[in-house]
Design a protein that fits this description.
Blueprint lengths: L4 H18 L21 E10 L1 H9 L4 H12 L13 E8 L6 E8 L5 E6 L4 E4 L13 H8 L2 E4 L3 E4 L20 E4 L2 H14 L8 E3 L2 H10 L2 E6 L5 E2 L1 H4 L1 H7 L3 E3 L7 E6 L3 E10 L11 H11 L1
Antiparallel strand pairs: 1-2, 1-14, 2-3, 3-4, 5-6, 6-7, 7-8, 9-12, 10-13, 11-12, 13-14
Amino acid sequence: MYIPTWILIGIVVAVVYYVSRTKKHAPSNNTTFFSEQETIKKYSYRLTISFEPNWYQVLKKIHNPKNEKEWESISKKIEKVKKDHDKDLCGRRYYFTEFFDSATGLITRFQHTILPNGKQLFSILDKFGDAGYIFEADHKFDLNESEEEKNARDKFTIEIGEDFIRNEIWEKNIGGLKYDFEYEKENYLFSFPLYDVFNFKMAMGQRFEGAEENVILEWPDKIKKQFDSLGIKYEVISDFEPSIFNIEEYDKEFYQKMGKPKIASGGPDKFLSAYLSSDLAYYKVSLKLFRPDENYRISENISFVLDEKKAKK
């Protein structure tokens, strides 16, 4: 019995489609704040990060002076470096904004860079970051330069990522930026546990509507340990004793699993704020989840809108 090829192809396509629609995917193990039994709702969100390297301390860490007297001598040389505020990385500040649309899976990233001379750059990109020489004056091509001199100069190449500052960024043999696996631990001048911080805020917002924006008074145990190991300090500034949202009272199991965090009953304002910092950078991260039907611009009474249009006619 002969079966036309096009029928066989159609059957294969139908089977693949059916299996893909009915297959139950295993829960992701990436998120540390959800168990396999829980359903992770995919809300749309806006993630914002402000990132300001402490360039003075970045330079000091790379130079690694033996004492303050040596650093004072190095500082004087740095002051004499010919500055190019349009091209130098030194002095730049960064604002990263990421929008995720849960309906389509679309991720859109905007980067706002403020240069030391006050100029501002805006861009839409696939990956946050910046890379180059701390001072553009170090960017030169000299055939007579020794390997030792080149390596010393390359120490002052920097890459800024959404959650790190690292140096010695150029691949020596083929050129271009290094891959992640090519970096040594000592190349990471600053690191931030963005993945865990993001997923903690996401978990809070999914469990308690709007809680992802509340000021965190005490971080989960796991994140606190990460902050300590990375030299990150967290400071809450308040003009009064902040009102606390008692997570344990509403959901004790969730509270225990989250690592016993403590959050305020509202978001930051002129009376209550919080800051993340280390010797090498100032960092701030915030998350806003978007839920269906919460856009105040859209009228719930569509008949009212239609009646208005008729009246105008």
